[in-house]
Queue: 3 jobs
Job 1
Amino acid sequence: AQKITQTQPGMFVQEKEAVTLDCTYDTSDQSYGLFWYKQPSSGEMIFLIYQGSYDEQNATEGRYSLNFQKARKSANLVISASQLGGSAMYFCAMRVPQGGSEKLVFGKGTKLTVNP
Amino acid sequence: ETGVTQSPTHLIKTRGQQVTLRCSSQSGHNTVSWYQQALGQGPQFIFQYYREEENGRGNFPPRFSGLQFPNYSSELNVNALELDDSALYLCASSRTPYQPQHFGDGTRLSIL
């Protein structure tokens, strides 16, 4: 069964420093997609970055980059220059087939606290 | 701003009652998925609707049901509420079942 594992319940980082949030995944599918979402206390899931299993380059979106290591089945999120507004829950998710559609399978999340 | 709105923001019910949660998607988004997020957990897939038909279902009992309407609005209905149904319910929409999903702010449901 498809599964996402996030082993860091909480992380702390100083403002303007970089931080890496870990994510490992398990799937037998050859084609899949990996996402990172940010969830502030308000509840909305905010899309950050996407990596397809066949993408040869690591995805980047502004201050966010995804360190994709396919053989190790890891998809770590790297945030450069953390900002105070970046304190939130961060979820890794994988797109998996579900009947005639697709669903997202999420990890348990990492709570990131950005300190001034 | 994702263009996906959910109502109400918060809701309190008692065990055994029924509840309807609503979601309004962006124009042109024919697919809506619902997720349940218990406290301290990641969201779990409940079901997906595509062009007003159920298009995939997670491991949730039949008392969780849904509707999707032609005007890009949808509903999640839960009957015979249980204490474990207390959670944040998230709606996500996309143009097709295979395109990125855009999430709303969610409805926080508390069961007393």
Note: The first strand of chain A starts at residue 3 and ends at 5.
Job 2
Amino acid sequence: TQLLEQSPQFLSIQEGENLTVYCNSSSVFSSLQWYRQEPGEGPVLLVTVVTGGEVKKLKRLTFQFGDARKDSSLHITAAQPGDTGLYLCAGANWGKLQFGAGTQVVVTP
Amino acid sequence: KAGVTQTPRYLIKTRGQQVTLSCSPISGHRSVSWYQQTPGQGLQFLFEYFSETQRNKGNFPGRFSGRQFSNSRSEMNVSTLELGDSALYLCASSPGRGGNTGELFFGEGSRLTVL
């Protein structure tokens, strides 16, 4: 059983469309991280959110941490083929980083 | 600055055998964490080493073990391999304790297939 539930599991969209990926848990986390993993590579950190209600923007990517620090979302505006990858959320607690199963995003030209 | 290096990248073993995977962290990083990644379960935390001491352990059987050397390089060992051990094993390093808000830097992984 995953401590962190990510939805949807798979998302296929056309270039230029917007998308949102969700990360939910019943647990409270001291911080939450988002990673992107491309085929044949390890995950790469995109952002860390720490404060409940925090919103961070990274170019076309917007990350939000829920007020109760139990959930988070990742929104991509005007997706590009380079955004294709496995998006992973990870919650930090008690010295451990627990990962969700990931959302596979495919952006076609 | 060299990234996290994992060897071997690919390996095939048969049931009952054992395997040792190696990880060289980024120079200066003292924490090394190991994760198992499978399509069904995602990334599952195996253990974390900091300054040669195991600081945290996930819910894996005792067949999974690891160690860290004085130069921060780490190895993990899986004994009596089972079919279900087939997975991508990822190593990640960080300057401080990896389970805190610090960034994890991942290697490309070692893909293990058990036949």
Note: The CA atoms of residues 58 and 75 of chain A lie 10 Å apart.
Job 3
Amino acid sequence: DGGITQSPKYLFRKEGQNVTLSCEQNLNHDAMYWYRQDPGQGLRLIYYSQIVNDFQKGDIAEGYSVSREKKESFPLTVTSAQKNPTAFYLCASRSGGSYNEQFFGPGTRLTVL
Amino acid sequence: GENVEQHPSTLSVQEGDSAVIKCTYSDSASNYFPWYKQELGKGPQLIIDIRSNVGEKKDQRIAVTLNKTAKHFSLHITETQPEDSAVYFCAATLYGNNRLAFGKGNQVVVIP
């Protein structure tokens, strides 16, 4: 079953702790994306990567970090520097080149207590 | 940068009626316009998209129209059913193919 997986579905952390969200895809897509979703805010881009070992900041990168060591994996770390980390985090991937379609994973809801 | 706006923010329709959601965009270079459906607690699902070289695309009960001159595109859902109740997001390409700019979403409620 091809697709994008995110784990875990729900994540709880104490304030001040770093936490890493997993995103894996077996679609052989070149590009991967991390979005943050808050109520009434739509989807805001955190980071994206078009190829392995390369990534770019999105609109709200402060307090987040990523890595892209493998084509199929794009983990997101929410650091203690992120002032309001509680949100729904969505990972997406795109085939690359002239293909525009982005496909989303099921999301991870992070709650910082 | 690209600015995408959606109207209305909430739409209630009777089952069987049609629903129309409109989005406007600002960047005349945008060339790809997808629509996503998001159910509560799930990731967005791509339901239909249109490229700038066509004016309309239809897939069963859903259709998308694009007016490049006016910089707006619309999602049309006919014969609405309760399972159409969800949040719908429109988007437009930004900086070529590499990014999408999303609208804030429309809550569609289909009343049985």
Note: Chain B is about 0% helix and 60% strand.
